[in-house]
UniProtKB/TrEMBL annotation:
One term under GO cellular component: Golgi membrane
Keywords: Cell wall biogenesis/degradation, Coiled coil, Glycosyltransferase, Golgi apparatus, Membrane, Signal-anchor, Transferase, Transmembrane, Transmembrane helix
Name used for this protein in its record: Glycosyltransferase
Entries under InterPro entries matching the protein: Nucl-diP-sugar_transferase, Nucleotide-diphossugar_trans, RRA1/2/3
Transmembrane segments: 21-40
EC numbers on record: 2.4.2.-
Higher taxonomy: Eukaryota, Viridiplantae, Streptophyta, Embryophyta, Tracheophyta
Species this protein is from: Rhamnella rubrinervis
Keyword Repeat: no
Length: 435
């Protein structure tokens, strides 16, 4: 602690010595400036024209030895007053420079922030009465920029409905699940969905099944991951690929393929946040957040420390609006995934969304919403709770995401049997978890 306290004092000392040295240097500079201004009234670089004046003045001030004592004191007085005038002007100019520099710095600092504030808030407003103030959640969408990908822009014009669509990435490893995925989307009658094909086989498969498909332009960075990358690596790709969709002005419901669609999700979105995501949580507390009290008995009176907890957003199913914070999120996640090759995209996605700004770190300021965990249901909720509960098992979710179980395909098919074909026993053979 003492070291911390000393440091500023020492700095002040050295600063004041430094400052007085500067003052002396400036005074000397100003003095010589005055002298030179007197002798070289037209500046240094007009030697030929000023030479006669110089010799004339020198002659005047130096050569007459006997007769000119009063003239030389006159000269000194003149020099003195010129010196005073010059230093006054110098102080004035320095003050002006200081003021202008300060204003410039402030303007630079505030420019970006202020522009965004004006854009979001419009004119300054007074706060309303108690209970009637509400902050903003909904950021303005970006101006669409078709130049980032004209081909995709054309395709999205055809596929999207009200500038929104479901997007899934797929390679040949997930072909069977993809089939269940689009079969149920078609059954529900959702027109606005698109598969981003990561290999040729998936492109042909989609075309053969009348499924809107987008084959990306070759990009070696992305393509090598798409072909050879593991589950997590491929999952990380979506953050890079999604950027263009948002830049084109589309809201994207990003979807993994281990998801069964039972209703149209676009009828169940709130669209008030940058990111609206399904949860890995399994009840109100874990899905929507709770105050988790940490107990440290050794602290006695202060043994209870309150902590904020929430089960993560599932990065396999979220709706993302085309806003600046959303695009910043994609960039931050993609950037970290490429710098930290062993990181898990879902962990990074949540860290970027939820950690606040703190010393040395500027957090993302994005609005977030957790989807209803009964409507956008993960497979833990379904197999642990819902299927055993008389009331809950009668509700029809919007989607079921088989994210908690490795035997994805058979469980997806069972979900279809249960909810679509009404087979009451379809979910029975499966254990709550996996061994
Ligand atoms: C969970 O939250 C919902 C809505 O917020 C509420 O209706 C329900 O009673 C809550 N359930 C429990 C078990 O607390």
């Amino acid at each position: 602690m003492s070291g911390r306290r000393d440091a500023p004092l020492m700095r002040n000392n050295t600063q004041s010595i430094f400052k007085s040295r500067i003052a002396i240097a400036i005074a000397i500079g100003v003095f010589f400036g005055g002298v030179f201004a007197f002798f070289f009234p037209n500046g240094f670089f007009f030697v030929s024209s000023s030479a006669p004046i110089l010799s004339h003045r020198l002659a005047k001030s130096i050569s007459p030895v006997g007769s000119a004592e009063c003239e030389s004191s006159e000269t000194i007085n003149l020099l003195k007053s010129e010196f005073i005038a010059a230093s006054e002007r110098n102080t004035d100019l320095k003050k002006q420079i200081r003021d202008l520099t300060q204003r410039l710095q402030l303007a630079e600092q505030g420019k970006d922030h202020a522009q965004k504030q004006v854009l979001v808030l419009g004119d300054q407003k007074k706060a309303g009465p108690f209970g009637f103030v509400k902050g903003l959640r909904t950021n303005p969408i970006v101006a669409p920029d078709e130049s980032v990908n004209p081909r995709l822009a054309k395709l999205l014009e055809k596929v999207a409905v009200r500038k929104e669509l479901i997007v899934a990435l797929a390679n040949s490893n997930v072909k069977e699940m993809l089939e269940v995925w689009f079969t149920n989307i078609k059954r529900v009658g959702i027109p606005n969905y698109l598969v981003v094909a990561l290999d040729e086989d998936i492109t042909t498969f989609c075309e053969a099944n009348n499924v809107p498909v987008y084959k990306r332009d070759p990009d070696e960075d992305i393509d090598s991951v798409a072909r050879t990358g593991g589950n997590h690596a491929v999952s990380g790709l979506k953050f890079r690929i999604l950027r263009e969709f948002l830049q084109l002005g589309y809201g994207v419901l990003l979807s993994d393929v281990d998801i069964v669609y039972l209703q149209n999700p676009f009828d169940h979105l709130h669209r008030d946040s940058d990111v609206e995501s399904m949860s890995d949580g399994h009840d109100n507390r874990t899905a929507y957040g709770f105050n988790d009290v940490f107990d440290e008995p050794a602290m006695g009176w202060a043994r209870y420390a309150h902590t904020m907890r929430m089960w993560v957003f599932n990065s396999g199913f979220f709706y993302i609006r085309p806003t600046i914070p959303s695009i910043e999120l994609l960039d931050r996640v993609a950037g970290r995934l490429s710098r930290e090759p062993h990181s898990w995209d879902q962990a990074v996605f949540n860290e970027e969304l939820f950690f606040p700004s703190h010393p040395g770190y500027d957090g993302l300021h994005a609005a977030r919403r957790t989807m209803d965990f009964y409507l956008f249901m993960n497979s833990k909720v379904l197999f642990k709770t819902v299927r055993k509960d008389a009331a809950l098992s009668k509700l029809k979710p919007v989607i079921v995401h088989v994210n908690y179980h490795p035997d994805k395909l058979p469980r997806m098919k069972a979900v279809v049997e249960y909810y679509v074909n009404g087979k009451k026993d379809a979910l029975k053979p499966f254990p709550d978890g996996s061994d």
